[in-house]
Write a structure and sequence with these properties.
The protein has 192 residues and is an alpha+beta fold. It has six helices and eight strands. Strands 6-7-5-4-3-2-1-8 form an eight-stranded mixed sheet. α1 packs across α2. It is globular, with a radius of gyration of 16 Å. The two termini are 18 Å apart.
Length: 192
């Protein structure tokens, strides 16, 4: 299954929020507190506001499979305070809100979205793709390791959020999207 990665629009906000609620319920059923308010996650209204800002800035993307949104990712150069140093932020893009629709689980949608983040990092001349993962979700940590990321560190005591496991992958480690079978389109329909 090869998704088409496209820039998300404000019309996708409801879909992105639906994906977040779906995945939060799934995580909760598995005993995780990830993204729950009890686990210090953002309420859905706060999440929607943050995604809205990312949509406005052109930082969010959708993986479409046969006309359906199979997943989403936000890629920018910002991180929560005290996670990454200014020097680490300077040469990286940061992944946020990567969520795959449960109906498409197991089809490597997340890997395609992460490869897209790698392409964006390459295009912006950044050496790293970095992300923070929910500190207690070791299954998620294993997922990112399988996707080629390495744990850099657990953020220090000044980082107050629930996502303090810091992972990174060198931009140069990705194959070109054409080699992985991902079709990438951006605004203006320019396939890469």
């Amino acid at each position: 299954m090869n998704p088409v990665i496209r820039q998300a629009t404000f019309g996708d906000l409801g879909t992105i929020c639906r994906l977040r609620l779906q995945r939060t319920a799934w995580l909760t059923a598995r005993g995780s507190d990830q993204w729950t308010v009890a686990g210090h996650g953002k309420p859905i209204e706060t999440f929607a506001h943050a995604v809205g800002r990312s949509l406005e800035a052109g930082e969010s993307w959708i993986a479409d499979c046969d006309g359906e949104a199979a997943g989403t990712i936000t890629v920018n150069r910002h991180a929560d305070p005290h996670l990454w140093s200014p020097c680490e932020l300077e040469d990286a893009v940061i992944v946020h809100y990567m969520i795959v629709d449960l109906r498409f689980a197991g089809h490597r949608i997340g890997h395609h979205l992460l490869a897209h983040a790698g392409r964006l990092a390459h295009d912006q001349h950044r050496k790293w793709v970095r992300l923070d993962a929910w500190t207690t979700n070791t299954e998620l940590h294993d997922y990112y390791r399988r996707a080629g990321f390495q744990l850099r560190r657990i953020a220090g005591p000044l980082a107050t959020g629930p996502s303090c496991a810091l992972f990174e992958r060198p931009t140069a480690s990705w194959y070109h999207p054409q080699l992985t079978g991902v079709v990438v389109s951006g605004s203006g329909g320019d396939p890469r």
